[in-house]
Amino acid sequence: MGVEAHKDLLASIGVDVDRHAKMMGMGLEAYQNQFLLQNNRPEAMKYFDWFMSEIQGDRIAEINKLKEQKKPAVGTFCIFVPEEIIVGAGGACFGLCGGSGATIADAETELPRNICPLIKSAHGFKLQRTCAYTQSSDFIYGETTCEAKKKTWEILNKHHPVHVMNIPHMKREKDLKMWKEEIVEFKEHIEEVTGKKLSVEEMKEGTRIVNEKRKALLRLDSLRSMNPDVVPISGKDGLFVTQMGFLDDPVRYTQKVNELCDELEKRVEDKVSVFEKETPRLMVLGTPFAPPNWKLHTAVETTGGAIINEESCIGHRYYKDNVDLEGVEDEDTLMSRLMNRYSKIDCACFTPNTPRIDKILEMYKDRKADGVIYYSLSFCHTYNVESHLVTEALEKEGIPCLVIESDYSPEDAGQIKTRVEAFLESLTFKKKAQAFKGK
Ligand code: BJ8
Questions:
Q1: How many domains does the chain have?
Q2: C-beta of 119 in contact with ligand 1 (< 6 A)
Q3: Within a domain: residue 286?
Q4: The model's pTM
Q5: Which residue's CA is minimally distant from atom 14 of ligand 1?
Q6: For 185-197, what is each residue's pLDDT tens digit?
Q7: What's the confidence (pLDDT) of residue 1?
Q8: How far apart are the CA of 270 and the centre of ligand 1, in A?
Q9: Upstream peptide bond of 72 is cis (omega within 30 degrees of 0)
Q10: Lower Cβ count inside 10 Å, N or C end of the chain?
Q11: CATH number at residue 290
Q12: How many Å lie between the centroid of ligand 1 and the Cα of residue 343?
């Protein structure tokens, strides 16, 4: 199947079909080289390989079928979107393309050069009309997390409808009150799009579905990271599965992630690891990895390291908390519970943001990792500045850390690999010294 089979649909939603086909070709080739050639991949990855081949084909057809039934289709670049409400309305909530450097030159015709690549990439996809998700969305969910995003919405809105939610930058009582009002307003916006009032039961069902998805991802995270002697799946595959959670149908996806976890559980039992025993196990902290941004994972895992999880929005920050539905009978309580869950997200846009540091230290200890990489997209001021406090806390605890700032261009791939290599060497040396001391 693939995009070819859906050419007419893609053209009907305004996709630049020829350019899109070229882009997909490049994406599939990168996937082939970076994923399919890995050794000893779990069998259950076959579903995710299939999904990749249909990422801009069958899945786009499914979303557009929902739209024919007047169900909402909402695109996002941020995990603050209350997806439970969209899913409750029977619709689709999905992450938009924003991980490729191929659209940045177009974006720079409207945006400054020195802002983060994620925003420029996403904006460029809209200008080029090469993201079928953007083209399928009723509206794009925008938020006020960082300056660059906030101002970009005003420009993006000229090309595509954008609904902006005001996310506070502090978590005081009055901020949380406003946040809850914003969630209510978002729900009303969904009702406007569908022309139908949403019931509490529908929203609770949407919440249950999304809670199950997050639970499955947390299970995957534990299997990847909590067994010091066995890493049953590569970090690259772990990241890819997580990335697809922002695109796939949530019920089918949850089932497939759980099937993968069943297989990984068996691998852990049988001590089947995809890495050699002494391979340094690393956590990655920082900004999100939108597909096809696999640069860091590829650099680490082709240099002799293993990535065991991501403290990132395409990672632990997304699935660490669920919505408590216990005793929820009315809309007001449900909105409060949603707000409670979303306000636990420890994005660097908040001040202060000490719970993030506490969480990182706790995760590191639980996972008995060997080191961390603090990864930040270029020009992301919030995460770049916060790295000072995070690395200070890591240093106090004696946790080895490598700080990497990068964008989507392939130019620094060699330099990143060299720095990772040196970091891994120092970790291996430390491990050997510790083992020697223990004798
Ligand atoms: S909740 S991390 S997804 S805002 S990387 S666009 S912050 S300049 S992606 Fe983020 Fe939501 Fe926070 Fe997560 Fe701006 Fe930084 Fe770019 Fe960012």
A1: 2
A2: yes
A3: yes
A4: 0.97
A5: 146
A6: 999 999 999 999 9
A7: 65
A8: 39
A9: no
A10: C
A11: 3.40.50.11900
A12: 15
